[in-house]
Predict the 3D structure of the following.
Amino acid sequence: MTAAGYVFGTQQKIATLVDLLRYRSIAQPDDTAFVFLKDGETIAASWTYQQLDHQARIIATHLQALTRPGDRVLLLYPSGLEFIAAFFGCLYAQTIAVPAYPPKANQTLNRLQAIVADADAAAAMTTEALLPDLQRKWREEALPPIHWLASDGLDSHNCNWQEPPITSATLAFLQYTSGSTGNPKGVMVSHGNLLHNERLIKQAFGHHDQTISVGWLPLFHDMGLVGNVLQPLYLGLPCTLMSPVAFLQKPLRWLQAISDYRATSSGGPNFAYELCVRKISPEQRRQLDLSRWDVAFTGAEPIRAETLDRFAAAFAECGFRREAFYPCYGLAESTLFVTGGTKTAAPTILTVEPDSLSQNRVVLTDAGLPLVGCGHPRFDQNVIVVDPNTLTECHQGEVGEIWVSGPSVAQGYWNRPDATAATFQAQLAPAANNPDYFLRTGDLGFIQGTELFVTGRLKDVIIIRGRNHYPQDIELTVEQSHASLRSPNGAAAFTVEVEGDEQLVVVAEVERTALRKTAADELEVIFSQIRAAIAKQHDLQVHAIVLLKPGYLPKTSSGKIQRHACRTGFQTGTLASVAQWQVAQTDSNPVVVLPTYDRETLLAQPASQQQQTIQTWLQVQIAARLKVGLEQIDLERPLTDYGLDSVEAVSLVADLEDWLGQSLDSDLLNDHLTLAQLSQVLTTQLYQPSPNLTPCPLPRRRSRLFWSWSQAVYQHWFQLSCQGLEHLPTDRPYLLAANHVSHLDAGAIVVSLLKQVDQVICLGAKDYFFDHALKSWFSRSFLNLVPLDREGTLLGALDALRHCEQLLNARTPILIFPEGTRSRTGEIQAFQPGLGLLALKLNVPIVPVYIEGTYQALPKGRLLPRRHPIQVTFGAPLDLASPQRNAADREACQAITDQTRAAILQLRANRLEQTFAPIPTQTNGRAIK
């Protein structure tokens, strides 16, 4: 081990995090290091220091075989102990960890792609569960080749780790700041930076040998990694972790864990404390014991005095003391921690004149703007406030840019020498008399006595719920959300304070030609699309939108947007507005009180009443979260149109779970269902479907209603027509094979067959339609899907074979899309051999089906369908199977699929001269299963 400095609880000098974990694994092998709570409540995993060290060495062994020292390794993990092991595996292999978060199912890889390009990552690690989906998205986005490693599936006996020559100057990881999507900057953090910052945190927080930590912050973020993972390791004391989603769904889980585990140190951004005040009831508070919690740190976003007051008052009966609050200031460029207060002392709060503050002067007053102090620096850290224009140090009571120097300041930005020089190598003027380098934080503040007060951002970076958002990224999203909006430089994004929270406001110019044509209902569409785009791309909820006349967006003479002037104009009502949307004040929309229904009461209601009850509940809940009237919640619009951010989305799911008594997946809100469709899904879920792999018939009336509704949609919206129904065999089962370009394909075929057959079973991609419980059940029960591995291998197709055989024995037709995935171009792609395998093994004919029009209505990548006629053509059955063909022969299987593809291509050619007849509108009393 390399000699450097003493670490808390050790008797020897330690220079790196590798030294630290190796020491803990030897000195405290069986002591608990980390505990992870599944759903924030029950223990899912618990590791000792020895187990963590062993996992890190296994991972490092594999990394050393794939990479070279100094290579960058992308970490794509959900919250859990696997991330911690992967992080230390990188350190043990002398690679540079690049923590990130795997994208959600409906998100693009834009930001991740930019990080990969900037870091020039050589490898990526994740879990076995996430690996297939990430690799698929990687291929679809045409990202550069990279080594993939699922760290939780490695051979535990393959541990041939060679300890590399690591020093305190060695880079440990790159922290990509939560800023611009197109131009992310990776902060280079060394082992020495981390150990120094951990020492600062330990001393400032007053941590000791009885400290117990609880954390929910994202582990890929510096506050979660440095504060919730590395600080407990530095102390040699346990930490209990949960995921951010678990906390957001039910804030009580955080405080309950603090109570149950008798934690002394825990914290988060200001919004976390505000959520606890709003979401935890008086009855729930009475079950909490917060008396041992003596460090309630808060930072990462503006700290509100009102929030501290409300939280302290609400939880005083739980034993929480106001003196436990520990406001602090930090940033990734200084590893994490910069300043903090004095433990056991109440936060310092000054009341200043807002007008003077806007002029960079501090004038104390009895009634004004309360500002919470962020403490003072420790040890050899130096914090000064500098006039950003003259580069001279400000006097007491003057607002300027916060500059920092000391061993915790990171090494710069990865592969960006100019940005590093500008940000990390600032000097006071004149430089000849002030040779020391400082970090320019970009934050504005002042020092009163020894206390630092942070007042804002120098460059208008928006901070909401602890995350930085660059205005230019949000503005670009706004400009691209609707064709009627001007671009470029036609929008401004900024925040205003509303009830103690920072809220997003956007101002956008409307094109002159569009302005003359835009009606009132089209304005609502513009507002809706802006909200939806911002929610999807930035996970933010919009407080207000102002549409301006062209040329009226405040700008400088050089064309730069004046966001401060936009904010002032919004607050004073002086913008040249042509239309404005804003969430209503809480008291302007009285809350509709619904009857309290439990699950049994809902089940006892008629089906139509059940769905209506759920629809009304959803309308009220969404309106309450958006602070709008019920009349603004349209049942025929997708939930994504309403722009719920992740906090509100998971909160809505949590409330649904409590009400329905069912476990739901938060991604349900991202499936682009309208409120009416979602209500229908939730209504059917009440019936607790069987867990069998084959579809479970629902009550006939419900299934009939569903497919009758689908039939009406296809007939009237898409003008569905078909031909060739006479080709369908009536004396034997068969397979239907169709081209695939859209999510509308399966429904078009099933609706076309309603008169001919009672039921059609579809083979659906296992990794798409069955990736969570509710979606899986809905796919089986209503869409009649059976899971199929779409990798295209013979063995993969065998997974569905037994289900298909059972269904065909019952004379149920089976629909398969041999291309394996939707075509991006609308052209018919190559077929996979799984179709041939099914035909051979089951000895059934194949009916070729050609679909057209669905690509124009809903191509891959489009969220909402457009009106366009859809046609379905059924061809004559193909008897391609024969006893002479071997089902294990891939060539035979491929030959069958090729012949089927040729038949579908011929149907397409024939379609050019065909005339369609409307599909039947009656089912002649046949049951729709």
